[in-house]
Structure formats: C-alpha cells, structure tokens
Fold these 3 entries.
Entry 1:
Amino acid sequence: MESLIVEGKRTLRGRVRISGSKNITLPLIAASLLTDDPVVVEDVPCLLDVGIMKEIVSEIGMGVRCQKHSLYLDASTVNRFSASHSLINQIRASILLLGPLLARFGRAKIYLPGGCSIGSRPVDLHWKGLSAMGVTFSLGNGYMEASSDRLRGNHIYLDFPSVGATENIMMAATLAEGETIIENAAREPEVVELAGLLTAMGAIISGAGTYTISIKGVSSLKGARYRVIPDRIEAGTFMIAAAIAGEGVIIENVLMNHLKPLTAKLEEAGVKVVESKPGTVTVTPPTSLNAVDIKTMPYPGFPTDLQPPFSSLMTQARGVATISETVFENRFRHVEGLTRMGADTWLNGQSLSIRGGKKLWGNRVQATDLRGAAALVLAALVAEGKTEIQDIHHLERGYEDLPLKLNNLGGEVSRKMPQQEHYAQIP
Ligand code: UD1
C-alpha cells in the first residue's frame, strides 16, 4: 500500500483553492438516473470515491463522460439494476442508487454497501422509508433486492436525520404518486444541493434544509446542468491545517455559511478567522491555542467529518479538550496514530480527552479511514521529524490533490511505497 511521507515543522503560507464537494457529487450522480435526458454536473472533484461511483453507474449501463471537471451523464441506456459487489462494497454512497433505480425502473439489487470503517452504518432508515412508499425488500447473501410496482408518497418520520436516507427517499419520491413528507429530515447542505438539482430537473420539492421536506411526485424528470458547491469538509480541514501549522493561510472557494460550527470553535480556541471577501477566508493561529470541547451533531452542529482533524489541533492546545462523538460509534481510530506520535489522550466510550501542549514526533502510522487519515496528516505537519502515513488511499477517497495543495503552501509531503525508515524517538 502506498504511504505518504510528511516532513514536520513546515510552516504553511499562501493560498489554497477548495475543490467541489465529494458528498454532493455522489448523490448528484445517483440522481441523474432519474431521467432519460443528459445531466451535466460541473466542478466535480477528481477523487477515488467519485471514480468508483462513475464505475458503478457505467456498469449498470449509464453513459459517463468526463471532461476536465465536468461530468456528462446519460441514463437513457441503463439496462441493469445491480452493480458488482466489488464496486458497491467500496463506497457507502452506492446505497443512493436504490431510490433512483426504484423510481425509474421499479427494481434494484444492491449489495450492502461499504465505505469507511467508522461504525456499523446500518441502512434500516433507507429500508423503512422506501418500504413506506410501497417497496418490497428481500434479503439475499450480502445483498438486498427491492421492487415496487408503483411508488406511493407517504408521511415518513426518520428516527435519526440520516443524510443518505433523506437523499434516497427524496430521490424516490420525485417520481412517486402523490406527496411524500419526510419528517426529521437531515438539514445538511448536501441535501439542499441535491434538492437543487432535482428541482432543476423538474421535481417539486419544498423545505430542503429544514426538518420537514415535502416532495410532490411528477410523471417524469428532464435533464439539467448543475454546479457542485465547494467541499465544506475539505475547507474545514484546511482551516484546521492553517490553525495548526499556518501563518495567515488564505483559503479560497469556501462557503463560510456552512462552516459556522467550526469557525466558532476555532475562534474559541483563539484562532483568527477573517472572511476578507465572500468565499475567501484567512486563518491565523494565536501564539498559544486554548483547549476547547466539541460535540459532533447533525448539521448545523459540529460535523462528525471534522472531528478527527480537530482532535489533531487539540493535541497542540493548552489544557484538556473533550471531544464527544454522537453520530458514528467508531470514529476514534485515528487516535492510535496520534498516540504513537506522542499525543496524550484517553478514551471513555464515545468521548475522547486530549491533554494538549505535547510535542508530537514523526512516526510510522496507519490511516484507517478518510477523515482519520486527514487527522494524521495534520498532526504530522507539526511533528518533529518525518511521519509515514500508511494506506493513504483512504485520503484519496475524499481530498483532491491534498499533497500538492499542502506543498504549494510550503509543506513537504510526498508519496512512496513503504520501506524501512528511521524515525525520531519519543523521549
Ligand atoms: C454522510 C456523509 C458522511 C458523513 C455523514 C454524517 C456522504 C457520502 N457521506 O454519510 O461523510 O459523515 O453523512 O454527516 O454524504 N444510520 C442508521 N440507519 C440508516 C442510516 C444511517 O442508523 O439507515 C446511522 C449511521 O449508522 C450513523 C448516522 O445514522 O451513525 C449518520 O449516518 P448518515 O447521516 O446516514 O450518514 P451517511 O449518509 O452514510
């Protein structure tokens, strides 16, 4: 497996541009299955997960053409209702094919999806919501088959505001008979943007971005062109990188409105965050960072995807920070790497405490999931000496050109195959 080598103690300066959002691109690709007309998605990031999603929809017969950062999708040739296990298994977002395939063709066979190993990640809410719309499910060996003669709108209450379940039900409902109301819906910007594309395609949706979304079914949808907004998690990761190892880093193509919980916590820690003009933010760390507590929550709470990078920042703060994870049950796997680098941490169930102010030392550490990998890169930026982060494909799932972007800011990050190295010893 490829590794990333990060030289520590490099100060980041200059400008970085944030790419289009991964978590918006993936449902937009799924949504393009809802029409026979071409759909064009612009500012698509070049990422492993996007590549896998493209392969999945190609396998079921969709025409997929990529030009620069635009994706041209043509579902008029779709002739299969399932993709291979080896592909589906790689990304959790593959479950998003379920709603559109059912809405368009009345059937789908989906292997239970994979993705980051950050918890059990069940699909019961997708299942329950679609069942309420008249879908019949049967379980096979590692897959589910779903079918419906006719999708009917219904009143669906989600036990938890799941992003994926909200998206799946919303897509299915666009072509269902009658009105669907999703209560306790996810309010994430990803849901709002998906509703944006669906509306451009002719769907009738109101309330996206609130707890209650209403979708009035229509008989067909048409093609559309839609631009993906900047990735709020990539932007947040760079804001934290700038706080941990930067000197006035300027981050461009950012929607600060989506980053309020992170901005509030960075400011509480003493970091200066200034939006000099719309979409451009300068992040300047203080001479001494304060420890602050965070608790992850569905949007607009603190995003679970920024919890691992934020925990790296807290290793450098004065005092003890407590990080409570409420969204996923296994999202502290990066902590082993931080501890190997010298961080003083202790875990108590879903709560991580970090006594900051400890010097970190370069070491060989293992990336175990996408955002955990980013956390290790950030820690490595301030560590003494060189860090080797193994299994770096996790990072490539969700960050476009991260090594290049860090190097352009003055970092020293390179890829290489694993081999013996000497690392600084933690005294
Ligand atoms: C999406 C994001 C992911 C982010 C997460 C939460 C994409 C491609 N991924 O994932 O980066 O971390 O939102 O902001 O957009 N759950 C159930 N049953 C279900 C569905 C979910 O119990 O049927 C649970 C999950 O196990 C998890 C929680 O709900 O504990 C949140 O999951 P969900 O909001 O569905 O996240 P994803 O859509 O998978």
Note: The chain has 14 helices and 23 strands.
Entry 2:
Amino acid sequence: MFEHLTTAPDDPILGLNEKFKQDQRDHRVNLIIGIYQDETGEIPEFRAVSEARRRISSNVKANYLGIDGDQAYAQLASELILGSDNPRFREGNWVGAQSLGGTGGLRVVADFLGRCRVTDTVWHTNPTWVNHQSIFNAAGLQTKPFPYLDAAGRGLDFSSMMSALEQVPTGHAVLLHGCCHNPTGVDPTAEQWQAIVDVLKRRSLLPILDCAYQGFGDGLEADVLACRLVSSQLHEAIIVQSFSKNFSLYNQRVGAVLFLTKDSAQAATLRSQVKAAIRANYSNPPQYGAALVRTVLGDKELCADWKRELEAMRQRIAALRQRFSESLREKCDHDFSHIAQQKGMFSFSGLTAEQVVHLRDEFGIYFVGNGRMNVAGLNERNLEVTTRAIAEVVGRCPVSAS
Ligand code: LMR
C-alpha cells in the first residue's frame, strides 16, 4: 500500500529549523522561524503568563471543553481584535471559537468554507506565508495569487494590487494579513486599507484577515485597524487570531476564529457549521493555553503588565531593524534601508536563494530560502556577525532586488 510513496519536500520554515537544530556550529544564527527571542537568544515568558500559571495550576479539570472551546476566552480574544465597545457584542452578530493556534484557525475556516460551499477560491497576496496555500488546498479550495510586493521587493505595489482585486469574481474570498505581513513586513497604510475595504464591499468579496502578529507592528490597537474597518463597514468577514507570538505561547497552540455575520440568527447558524467543521477535525481544543490567555486578558493588572511587556518587545524589534540596516549601510553599497521601515518580525531581505545558501553553508546564518529573515532573532551578539556575512556574500554576487 505504501510502495508508491515518494519523500515529501521539507517544510521551508519548520523543516529548515530542524536542520538548524542539527547544525553543530557554535556561532550559528537562527533567523528562520517567527519567534521572538530576547537579548540572550531565549524565548522569554511574559511576567503575566507566569502569574497566570500560578493562578490556574490548581484549577485545571480533565473534562472536555465544548467543541468551540472556552467561550470566556473567545469573548476576550475577540474583544482584543474588535474593541470591547464594538456594537457587535451587543447585537450578537459574531461567532468566536477557540482554535489550535493561527494555523488551526485557518484550517477550520478552510473546512467551513469548503463544507458549506461558501466559496471555492481564496485569493492571497504574492508572496504570502508558505503554509497559506497548503491549508486551503488541503480543504479542497483553490488558491490564486494577486500582486502585493513591488518589483524592487521593498514596498507595496498598491495600484497592481487594487487592479487585481477589482477583477476578483464576486463571492470569492480574499486572504489578507491583518498586520505585519508575513513574509515581507510590508503593510498597507490606513488610507490604503480603507480603499481595500471599499473594493471588498463593492465587489462582495469575503475577507479573511490573518492576524498572527498583533502588537508587533504599530501597537496593539493600531495593528487591528483593518479588522475594525472590516467590522464596521462589512456585514460578513472572517478573522483568524494567534497568541503564539504576542503571548509567547508557541507550543500551546492558542488561537481563535472570529466570524462576523449579518445578524444574530446568521451567527447561530454559522456557529453550528463551525462546530461541525471542528468536530470532524480535532473534536475540541485543549484547555491550558487558552486558560492562560483568559486569565491574563480577564485581569486588569495582568493585562496592563502584558501590554507593557509586549510594547517593549515591539520597540526592541524596531530598534533592531534600525541597527541592522545602519550596520549594513556601513559595510556594503547595496541599499537595505527598507528593512528599517518594515513592520513586525519579518523582512524580505532581497537576498537570492544562492546567497541564502552561502550564508547558511559558509557562515551558519539561516534565512528562509525566499530571503525572509526573522528580525526578532537578532541580538547584540549576532547582529554584527550577520551583517558582516551579508556584506561579504552580497559583494561576491549581486542581490536580486536593487
Ligand atoms: C513563521 O512564519 O515563521 C511562523 O508563522 C511559524 C510557522 O508556523 O511557519
């Protein structure tokens, strides 16, 4: 039965991370996976999360959660996206469900769209996160790209993007990154977001906003601008949320899906379908990670402390971006200044696949093959080594985008 199988390709992000773990070189630098590391290279635990661990340790019960998970958690998670005073919470025209991180949330959305025949096509930015297409394809949906990054690989090609969105057939879904675009770090401005929402509305397209990096771009509130525009101006939309990054809970798989509906009756129908999609997939979610997030978001002081720590991380990444691009300016002719302007954990460096291989094999510096780097993996110790290696590699063979 298994004779015909051939080896599947390694995942471009997680597969490479496995290779990094096997690399024995002391000086190796991991700029692969979207994980925030502190100055010592460790993944920090938020003070508020440590306190939440203490508070819930005696409280964990063994019973199953409901299919759609911890509803107090889903409410608080949705409030973080939409704002606690959002009229939808009074009107009941929304559905929130716990999910297995952002990836699990996207898969619930994909299954829901497919099983309910909402649409058969999901349009996505070119480029997008390497797993987006696989998730929707696995649920039987087709995926199609629309332009996003400009030819120089540094900023948004807004006019091409808008022209393409104008051509998307009515009723199709459009997958957008709520903030901190992965892999480019290039986000639309507030005015551009409004124009995007206008076209979604005019052409009756269904937005799916993937919101995995809230708090790492311009701040917790500013990063959900697109979600709030969609919530106030469209009847129907889908938002997928992850707490992997902004709660530093990578292996707890804590996320949520938020469906915005025309009215409360539609919300009730939709909840039943979302539950059916979840039940057929993983039955119901685990408790612990969501309980940690609920405990922090539900406690005024813990929540304020979490926000302070997250803001400090955001500012540190912004400072690292500046330092990185200045250090490169001192060392090579090529212009890497776009890295200082971009948002969130990632930047598209513009390095070619060949240069990325040189960096990895000769210097032990790991970028994703498409040139994406996790800026949040830099620190005082590895920044200088990294920019020196980039300057050397770029000096030998020119970069693709200039
Ligand atoms: C990333 O893009 O590095 C993260 O979202 C982790 C992942 O699952 O790929």
Note: Residues 13, 33-34, 129, 131, 182 surround (2S)-2-hydroxybutanedioic acid (CB under 6 Å).
Entry 3:
Amino acid sequence: MPAYVIVGMQWGDEGKGKVVDYLTSQADMVVRHQGGNNAGHTVVVGGKQTVLHLIPSGILHEGTVCIIGNGTVLDPQVLCKELDSLDASGCGYKGRLFISSGAHVIMPYHKVLDKAQERFRGSRKIGTTGRGIGPAYADKADRFGIRFADFADPALFRQKLADALEYKNLILKDTFHEEPMEVDAVLKEYAPFAERLRPFVADSVVMVHDALRKGKRLVFEGAQGTMLDLDHGTFPYVTSSTTLAGGVCAGAGVGPKEVNGVIGIVKAYSTRVGEGPFPTELLDDTGELLRKQGHEFGATTGRPRRCGWLDCVQLRRAAMLNGATSIVLTKPDVLTVVDTIRICTSYKINGVTTMDFPAHVTDLEKVVPVYEEMPGWNQDISGCRAWDELPANAQRYFERIESLVGVPISIVSVGPGREQTITHKDPFA
Ligand code: GDP
Ligand code: IMO
Ligand code: MG
C-alpha cells in the first residue's frame, strides 16, 4: 500500500508544489487533505509557471487522479477561477479531478469575519491570508459549516445557508458592525458555482481506498508547514488546520498504517509570512538578499516573506512531529549569493543552551540562536543534475543538515523547473 505524505517542514512555501509535481510522474493519485486557498503552490514546467491554491499540484500530469479531500476548506469562487485558468492553458481535468462531499465550503461571511477578527486583534493580529480559512474551520468545529454535498444540492444549500446566516448575521451586525447578508443574494452569487462544481463531487474515501487496494501509488500533498500547525505550531500564530503528516488520517480518511513514508520538504534557508516568532530571522541586508534572490514574495497574497538562516532546532522538532523518512531540500541555489552560510544548531533561552524547540511561544520569543558557520560555494548550481556535480561545499552543507536533523536527504531541488531536480536516494524506498 504505497502511500506517501509530502509535508512542509518549516513555515510553508518550502516548494511543496514543485516537489509534488516532480514526484507525480511516479504516482497515480494526488490528494490534498487540509487547508484551503491560503496555500499557493507553484509549479514550473517548460518555463511556464502555474500557481495552484486548491487543485492538487499533480494536475499537470495527464493520467493522474487528483482529489480534494474532506479535510479541506474550499472557496467555490476561487476553485472556479482555478478551473478557468486550467481551461485556458489546455490542461484537461474532467474525469480525474474530484472534490470530497465532506469538504467544507468557504462562504462570503467567512472572508468578512477573517478580516474583521484581524482588525479586532489589532497589534496582536495573526497576519492571516484573509481568505476566510480560520472562520470556515471554526464553523466546522462549531457545526455551522456547509459541506460540499450540501452545497451541491440546491434545496439543501438554501436550507443550510439560511440556518447559518441566521446566526452569522448576529455576529456580523452586533459584534463587528458589518452589513448582514441576505440568503437570496448569496444564493444568486453562489448557485452558478455549485452548478459548475456539482459533477466533481464524490465520496473521496472510497476512491482513495480503492486505489490503495489496487496497489496504486498515492501522494498526499500537505499545505502550509509544520510550524503553522494548529496544535504543534507557534500558536496562536498558526493556521486553523492540522498541517502535520498525521493530518492525512482525518483529512483523507485513511488509517496511519496505510502511510509508507513521509517526505519532508525543507527550504535551504527559512521563510515565514505573517506574524509570530521566527528565531533565525534576518532583518539585515542578508535577509533582503535572500528575499530578492529567492523571489520570496507570497504566492497567494504577494506579501514579502520574512527570511532567515536554516534552523535545525526547529527542523528536528518538525522531523519528530511528522515522522519524516526523508528530506527534499529545495532552493539551495539561492544561497549561491552568500559567502558564508550560517546554520542554527541550538538555542539559548535565558542564558541556558538547549537543543530542544520550545513548546510555547513565550519561550520561543526569548530564543537567541546559536550558529555554526560553513563556507558557501559561489558557483551556480542550478544546472547540476547529479549529486557528484554539486560543489564540495554544497555537498558538505547538505550532509551537515542530514546529520543535524537526523533524516537523510532523498532529493535536492536546484531551481523552480521540473527538470532542475537531483535524485540522491529514492524517496519512495
Ligand atoms: P509551496 O507553497 O511549498 O508549494 O511553495 P511556493 O510555491 O509558495 O514557493 C516556492 C517558490 O520557490 C516558488 O516560486 C517555486 O517556483 C520556487 N522554487 C521551488 N523549488 C525551487 C528551487 O529549488 N530553487 C529555486 N530557486 N526556486 C524554487
Ligand atoms: P503554502 O501551502 C505560508 C500563514 C499566514 C498566517 C497564518 C494564518 O503555500 O505553504 P490563515 O490565512 O491560514 O489563517 O493564516 O498562516 N499561511 C501561510 N504561510 N504558506 C502558506 O501556504 C500559508 N498558509 C497560511 O501567512 O501567518
Ligand atoms: Mg506557497
């Protein structure tokens, strides 16, 4: 039962989209199991860039079945736009793209509430993407949410929407002094999306298990990253879903024993979008250099990403939380512009050295990172296609990461293109 989880090991934007697309050539099915269009996953094939927010990054491979699982939250408007752009690029998806009947729908009030809550938080804001993700997941937990099966049925949609709005309008009006929403107006806008998306709705659990039984290879595509996990991330500066590898179980309906391996995506330096502690953040020219060289601007909101050195204390925690079986290292080509590379190996908190990532944000805010320095390579590596072609100093940096994190590197990505990829060890072994 060869199922593999692809998980972001940092704060998101590690290059999951590129890696999922690359690995899909060896997979039959790709499943998104959490998150929504807070994600922005970039795939570059033949110099052409595609940014996917909801549709799995395996969609550009013609024969691959792509599933949006029950653990996701979907904005129908955004999904329809994404289908439009696939149509425009000639990418066929009919008959191989499916939406779980249990996925939750992001409604217009979720987006208004997301922004209103951020305003309410003021200086304590999370820095969300403003896409309604938190309020949609909150409604799921509160049992006011609308599932895709309800959304796709006109009578049920009207009823569920009316029920939800009766409650939501109280909050919109009385708490946030926002305009209430009319059932008919929302229906008028959303019914065409429901009409268009209805043919894609399926019981994804049956499809996933059918594929597993037939011995097909499945890839579960994580969104966001480990440190944005609702339970184990830097709470409250997190997203509202389980971003860890274990999230696959609830988000796609598979038991833990079905998962054969966990492929952790690690960017060769660190980035973060939004608020919250970031121990190795670089607020100087080097941070600016990494942002410029790595094009570190959000694929969803366009916000500049905060940049910093690789943090192996954080990565050890991520390896533990996900049970990572191998690492795919991305974007080391960006570090070519740096003469001396720093790696964080331990933390000092209140003058005490620790190798452990603190569980609470108040301790994380006090961290002084302890660095080790390594010489850079000053030589373009984006054309390398084999481990042996990499400069010795790059190989040393990669091996140091393996030993500090305690997980072997299976693949090194040296550029955004599908072909700019070096397989060092089989990630599916
Ligand atoms: P995701 O959210 O994890 O899928 O990552 P994003 O797509 O948001 O951000 C990663 C960015 O880095 C995208 O612009 C990719 O095209 C790009 N990228 C991915 N891998 C590499 C790499 O190895 N080198 C370089 N230079 N860019 C890469
Ligand atoms: P991908 O899949 C990076 C961040 C937001 C914010 C926090 C909460 O492309 O790696 P939310 O809108 O989810 O309630 O925002 O999480 N965030 C991401 N940062 N990459 C992402 O996705 C992210 N999705 C959410 O910036 O700090
Ligand atoms: Mg992204």
Note: Residues 12-13, 39-41, 299 surround magnesium ion (ligand 3) (CB under 6 Å).
